[in-house]
Amino acid sequence: MNKKVLKAVFPAAGLGTRFLPATKASPKEMLPIVDKPLIQYGAEEAEAAGIESLVFIIGRAKRAIPDHFDKAYELEVELESSGKEKLLQIVQNVLPEEVSCIYLRQAEAKGLGHAVLCAKPVVRDEPFAVILADDLIKGDSGRGAMAQMVDVYDKYQCSVILVEEVPPEETNKYGIVEVTEDDGETAIISSIVEKPDPKDAPSNLAVVGRYILTPRIFDLLEQTGTGKGGEIQLTDAIAELLKFEKVRAYRVKGKRYDCGSKLGYMEATVEYGLEHPELGEDFAAYLRGLACTPGSKASKE
Ligand code: G1P
After folding, report:
1. Which residues form the signal peptide (predicted)?
2. Rounded to whole angstroms, how far apart are CA atoms 248 and 156?
3. CA proximity to 249, closest of 175, 144, 196, 195
4. Which of 15, 20, 129, 283 ranks highest by number of CB atoms within 10 Å?
5. What gap in Å lies between CA 205 and CA 156, rounded to an integer?
């Protein structure tokens, strides 16, 4: 094999029902954390991992995603003529020029496995990354989760799946893995199951929105029938992959925010806000003020 991971697939055709009505006409991947949409954090993470092509799997009402990564002529002319250099740079540098974007339409939302399979004609026989943008991950020491995973892939030359321990009562929200040869950082996956009830879960090690997969997964996805929730599940195809190849679990060094849930989204907004170079100090002062205001909800905690 010995190929590099140069493509990342971004499934982004879901309906975003947990954020309605915000996601009625615009994609959940475009929800901002402070001033950048979730999908841009994902794209930057891919780029920092050496990935050169971003493959977006989009559905209806997702035109804002290609527009976001496209050139914005009128806006740029406007910013230039009014001397707003800094903003102009921000708009022009949404992605570096070396990174190319490919958009594929998933006509029906038939599940994550189906979305990944849509990328087969573009990815073909290469290993590739999958990034679920609503899992926002802040890597330790500024090293992104995908860059960490590419290191693991380069070392072991096998599929790598990002995992994190979750509270045992939450296993029904995630793909859950069982592992052997666990060195505390990586381990070999011996089984994987989609969203098991806590009583049936083989562990509390949950898959958290980042995968590096070998291309054999496409053949397996083609044979995968509908699973949990009546959808074609990536987890089910990975369970088949285990019969042919080693797949490693990797525990992220960093912090994950579940921006697919309102609480996780708000936590990310607060923490990224506190670290924002222009806003951080004022925002921290505001939060302290809230905590000290007698009778406020924040003061009761
Ligand atoms: C998907 C996967 C699941 C994984 C999760 C991570 O579920 O099917 O295995 O644990 O992403 O965020 P979803 O959150 O799309 O329901």
Report:
1. none
2. 9
3. 175
4. 129
5. 21
**Is the C-beta atom of 175 inside 6 A of ligand 1?**
yes
| Pocket perturbation via mutation, ligand 1, pick of 207, 234, 265 by most ligand atoms within 8 A of CB | 207
Q: What angle do CA 297, 298, 301 make, to 5 degrees?
A: 95
Note the pLDDT of residue 1: 52
Residue with the smallest CA separation from ligand 1 atom 7 is 174
pLDDT tens per residue, range 209-226: 999 999 999 999 999 999
Q: Is the CB of 111 under 6 A from ligand 1?
A: no
Task: Say whether pLDDT at 254 is over 70.
Answer: yes
- State mean pLDDT over 191-207: 96
Domains and CATH numbers, the chain: 7-260 (3.90.550.10), 261-301 (no CATH)
Q: Is the CB of 211 under 6 A from ligand 1?
A: no
pTM of the model: 0.94
In degrees and rounded to multiples of 5, residue 138 shows phi and psi of: -100, 105
Which residue owns the Cα nearest ligand 1 atom 5? 174
- Helix (H/G/I), strand (E/B), else coil: 209: strand
Distance 188 CA to ligand 1 centre (A): 20
Q: Whose CA is nearest to atom 9 of ligand 1?
A: 175
User: Cα(245)–Cα(207) distance, rounded to whole angstroms?
Assistant: 18
CA of 252 to the centre of ligand 1 (A): 16
Selection from 140, 117, 133 nearest residue 219 by Cα: 117
Average pLDDT over residues 134-161: 95
Q: Which amino acid is at 274?
A: L
User: For a substitution probing ligand 1, which of 132, 163, 189, 247 has the most ligand atoms within 8 Å of its CB?
Assistant: 132
The first and second tokens of residue 243, run together, are: 């019969």
